[in-house]
Design brief:
mainly alpha, 5 helices, two-stranded parallel ribbon, single chain
């Protein structure tokens, strides 16, 4: 075969052992982890409307978009809340928002912990 010295054979044996160990570890780890299909792009899941509304919103100065971020409030109801504020003045109590047409007890219960008045 090859005329190698004892030291060269030892180095080749060591390198072979390292490669074999790496392969075995790779096979072992791959067997434990779930297989991820190629081409899958990981991204942050989209925020839900409830997650965006976690910060309390001052309903006396809230924009249309901020009101829409509250659960159960869509564009039309947000506009009614803003119109109510313009015509009747600021809300003094959180429950006052229930005076707006379309905000009943159930809808109010969905967002009452997410609003404030300042």
């Amino acid at each position: 075969m090859l005329n190698l010295t004892r030291q060269e054979r030892g180095i080749l044996l060591f390198i072979g052992a390292v490669i074999l160990t790496g392969l075995l570890i790779s096979i072992f780890v791959k067997g434990l982890s779930p297989e991820i299909p190629r081409g899958v792009i990981f991204s942050k899941p989209p925020e839900s409307r409830t997650q965006r509304a976690r910060e309390k919103i001052n309903i006396n100065i809230a924009t249309r978009e901020q009101l829409i971020s509250l659960p159960g409030i869509g564009p039309a109801l947000a506009e009614r809340i803003i119109e109510y504020r313009k015509s009747q003045g600021p809300f003094f109590f959180e429950e006052d928002i229930r005076k707006v047409k379309g905000v009943g007890p159930g809808k109010y219960a969905r967002f009452k912990d997410l609003i404030v008045m300042e």
